[in-house]
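Key idea: predict the complex, not the pieces.
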Amino acid sequence: MGFYCDHIFPHLMDWVMARPVFSHLREALLRSASGEVLEIGFGTGLNLSHYPTTITCLSIVDPAILLPAKVSRRMAAVPFPIQTNHVTAETLPFPDGQFETVVSTWTLCTIPNPVLALQEVRRVLKPEGRLLFLEHGRSKDQKITVWQDRLNPIQNVIGCGCNLNRQIDQMISQSGLTITHLDRFSMHGVPRFAGEMYQGAAVAQH
Ligand SMILES: C[S@@+](CC[C@H](N)C(=O)[O-])C[C@H]1O[C@@H](n2cnc3c(N)ncnc32)[C@H](O)[C@@H]1O
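Result:
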């Protein structure tokens, strides 16, 4: 990780991704989360305040411990129990079919082996369960993908492993999940190379 990724990047990430333009998208995605929920790539807990208060329990997975004091305050402000796991999404420590909902927001860009992580998501989802995803990735516009490919090595360094050019829908399908809903759009106020969005849901279909 190193000093920058451990101590500087988490503050930058939290500051940028707490902006209203991000919060509105989190809110819209998470309002349909239900039951026992797993969030992969939890980060600094920016989704917490957007979960319906009716969810049964939230399990979170992230190999990193980011801004622990701020995260503790955010955790204390929600009414549902939270179970923390400092592991990777590629090796989920849960039995098959445990979760009604799995959530991934701005995370599939960074996970080193996203297809393996999504296979794990599929395994831990109940047969009727859903993955809710909100991710940035590869554009449909070739003028943008050229820049995404050019800038990716730099983004990898300044974004601590983040990739600009991953084809999110393809990775989800490759894992065996079935996409039931997909919206593609460009985020307002974010440069297009970093703001080409994939928002939707996928089911496990065991
Ligand atoms: C850009 S941040 C997004 C944080 C959060 N999901 C959000 O929406 O604000 C990406 C997160 O993925 C986490 N991450 C990196 N590798 C991972 C892995 N193999 N499994 C799970 N999470 C991982 C990082 O530690 C980081 O917290």
